[in-house]
Amino acid sequence: MKILVIHQVPYRKIDYHRAIDHERHEVTYIGHPHRMADLPEGLRCERLTLAADEDLVAGVCARTSPADGYEKVLALSEFGIAEACAVRRHLGVDGPSPEQVELVRDKVRMKEALAGSGLRHPRFVREPSRCRPLPWTGRTVLKPRQGASSEDVTVHETARDALSAYWRLSDPGTFQLEEHIDGDILHADGLVQGGALVDLAVSRYVNKPVEYADGKPLGSHQEPHTPEQRAFAERVVTVLGIEEGSLHLEFFETPDGELVFLEVANRVGGAAVVPLHELHTGVHLPSHEIAVRLGLDRPAPQPPSGRHHGWLAFPGHHLPEGPVGAVAVPDALRDHPCVDRIHVLAPGQAAPRHITYQEWEVPVFVEASHPDASELRRFLKECADAVVIGAGEDTAADGRTTREAKAA
Fold first, then answer.
1. 3-state class of 63 per DSSP?
2. What is the 3-state secondary structure (H, E, C) of 338-350?
3. Residue extent(s) of CATH 3.40.50.20 domains in the chain
4. Of 63, 101, 189, 396, which residue is least crowded by CB atoms under 10 Å?
5. Closest C-alpha among 175, 18, 44, 62 to residue 108
6. What is the 3-state secondary structure (H, E, C) of 135-172?
7. 57 three-state secondary structure
8. Are the C-beta atoms of residues 12 and 36 closer than 8 Å to each other?
């Protein structure tokens, strides 16, 4: 099979070689220089590098043609699935339509599509009027229609405040307003094949993604999912017409136990969702997604760990420019039986200025596990309060895991 991969997600997050036999198939990777640089040196493939500032679709179309004989186009990034529609059309390759992709990219369209489904979602306004108030008065969320990682999301105490912020935007048409929902936020991660949800794990956030954008640590942990949660995820898949690939669904659980749709993506979750999902379920989501999209047999799952797994990231995008200050991780946390791995930025290394959950980019990243999800949650919340960035001296601030440092 001849496969074109639009390479945008760090290779270590996908590990294409686990799903694609590069000796058997003809694989071409195309992408911008910073991403192409992370392809393994010995990987048998063709490499097409775009200019650093080149438009993705224009660049791919300029370097490929229908005569190349590509049979499949893979695009696994949140910011590439819509662009891949244009590339497939250029190459004459089948794939999801732009209308299907819009339902898992545009936060207005996905909620509009849920109308009449019986699934509750926040009230929202696509294009407010300067002459009319919003149909609610309380806390209100202003967010990009096609954003990710809570970038540029703001929460306002009143609908009037949110409207004022909306009209101050330089491009308000790319944003939407929705009512704030009180409750925990959960995420469901799994795999869709033939329109059916064939794999699922549910996790509960520690703090909220929008708080991470403001500099507060964020994490999540797996917990046993209920029949109601599974039915909710299955209904979303059906109503939005998701046919194949990974599922990353976020939803609220209100204080009275009601499930409320937040948003959905047809790709793997970020942070440590992929490796921790594999530990918990035995399923490496990217490999299974690639197999489904290419029409190959799904890999055999690994034995599950029998534990619930979680992660906690401490952001650095809000810190002063330059190297991150000293990091203090109490010994009681380092030696805690829940801890599987703690990664700390190397001395002198600066955190990116953009929002990221990558463990090798944030000042501190914790991976932990426990057979009891409630015990794991208690530990992650304790950890979120105890780690201090910019004060003290860390004994393992060299980029190694704490257990590697202790063994050295």
1. helix
2. CEEEEEECCCCCE
3. 2-95
4. 63
5. 175
6. CCCCCEEEEECCCCCCCCCEEECCHHHHHHHHHHCCCH
7. helix
8. no
User: What are 371-402's pLDDT values in tens digits?
Assistant: 999 999 999 999 999 998 874 344 443 444 43
- Residue 212 and residue 355 in contact, taking contact as beta carbons nearer than 8 Å: yes
Residue 193's H or E segment, with its range, is strand 184-193
Q: Which class is 307-408 in CATH? A: alpha beta
User: Hey, CA dihedral for 239, 80, 366, 402, is it positive or negative?
Assistant: positive
pLDDT band with cut points at 50, 70 and 90 for residue 348? confident
Place of tokens 């409750």: 183
- Ranges for all domains in the chain classified under CATH 3.30.470.20: 181-305
Q: Return left, alpha or beta for 118; rule: phi > 0 is left, psi -120 to 50 is alpha, else beta.
A: left
Cβ atoms of residues 295 and 133 within 8 Å: no
Amino acid at 168: R
CA atoms within 13 A on the CB side of 359: 20
Residue type, 33: P
Q: Give the CATH number of domain 2-95.
A: 3.40.50.20
Q: For domain 181-305, which architecture applies?
A: 2-Layer Sandwich (3.30)
- For residue 182, the one-letter residue type is D
Q: Residue 247 has which token pair? A: 């599922």
- Residue type at 56? L
Give the DSSP H/E element, type plus range, for residue 289.
helix 285-294
Return residue ranges of the chain for CATH 3.90.1170.60: 307-408
The pLDDT tens digits for 107-124 are 999 999 999 999 999 999
pLDDT band of residue 347 (cuts 50, 70, 90) is confident
Instruction: Write out the two tokens for 144.
Output: 């990009």
